[in-house]
Amino acid sequence: MPAQLLHNVSLRSYNTFGIDAQARLFAAFASAEELRELLRLPEVQEAEKLVLGGGSNVLFTRDFDGVVLRNEIRGLEVAAGPDENTALLRAGAGESWHGVVEYALSQGLSGIENLSLIPGTVGAAPLQNIGAYGVELKDAFDHLEAVEISTGLLRSFSHEECGFGYRESVFKGPLKNQYIVTGVVLRLHRQHRINTSYGAIRTTLEEMGITEEPTPQQVSQAVISIRRSKLPDPAQIGNAGSFFKNPEVSQHKFDTLKEQFPEAPGYPVPGGVKVPAGWLIEQCGWKGHRAGESGHYGVHAQQALVLVNHGGATGAEVRELAEQIIASVREKFGIELHPEVNIF
């Protein structure tokens, strides 16, 4: 059955912020061939295109006067890796990311357990090189397959070709809006390589009564516990998770910051220091802030990095709040915050 092109579709249920924007055109595809069929339609060729997976990293500030293509390609399978301790896990781009983490654990594979409970789909994961608790997607990435929008050709991209950076890839830069990811292959470990060095993982494991070397499943459980304690469930409060990237500053800038704010946290990264955006925002007094006449949007009470829609907010209101936060952090600390969320 060919994919169907729909007109004037509400996107409220397709974005975790719960913003009620409309797409002029909308279609879902469940295979690379269905995607090619859609891309051959004159209406689609001429329109601005937006690919949606879980809609967990977008903020709509207006109706979308183009075509929204929803990626629903499924499929999970494990194949032999280059050596006996490595396995290749292939996932369709429309699979839920957390579902892939659970599947990997069920197969006795480790490498992505620190990325548990990150919302969204597999196809979006390499585009912004998702990361959490000391691990990034690029650490487990082997290659991906994507359809070129202009030709419909399927192409494979290696780790190097993806140009991964902090919440960045070549698909957010030189190749932006040129390819649609159909599948991702991860390189995972049969012999466990546990990473508990970041954040509160070790403390949480101890609170769970785990004092010996934890299993990947236990690390996953700890990460899930931490995330649930800090981050609101989009099914209950509209949000897109971390709204801002953690800024990276030079060592000199960080030393200057520490002189003025001795308690300022920072994590060494190549070329400088990463400063938690949530801490910067909280120091500016935004944590728990509610805006609007009825307080219908604002900053989450447990995590200043998360902007929330308590109900009825517009994307323009949330964007204005983000701009106010950016300006206040710039004024107080001389550090520029950048959204992690894609704003339309």
Q: How is this structure best described in words?
A:
With 344 residues, this protein is an alpha+beta fold. It has ten helices and 20 strands. It has three domains: 6-71, Uridine Diphospho-n-acetylenolpyruvylglucosamine Reductase, domain 2 (2-Layer Sandwich); 76-230, 2-Layer Sandwich (Uridine Diphospho-n-acetylenolpyruvylglucosamine Reductase, domain 3), CATH 3.30.465; 238-343, Uridine Diphospho-n-acetylenolpyruvylglucosamine Reductase, domain 1 (Alpha-Beta Complex), CATH 3.90.78. 26% of the residues lie in helices and 25% in strands. It has a five-stranded antiparallel sheet. The protein has a four-stranded mixed sheet with strand order 1-2-5-3. It has a four-stranded antiparallel sheet with strand order 13-19-18-17, covered by helices on one side. Strand 10 (141-148) and strand 11 form a beta hairpin. Helix 6 (201-207) packs across helix 7. The longest helix is centred in the C-terminal third of the chain and has 19 residues, at 315-333. The two termini are 31 Å apart. The relative contact order is 0.13. The mean pLDDT is 94.
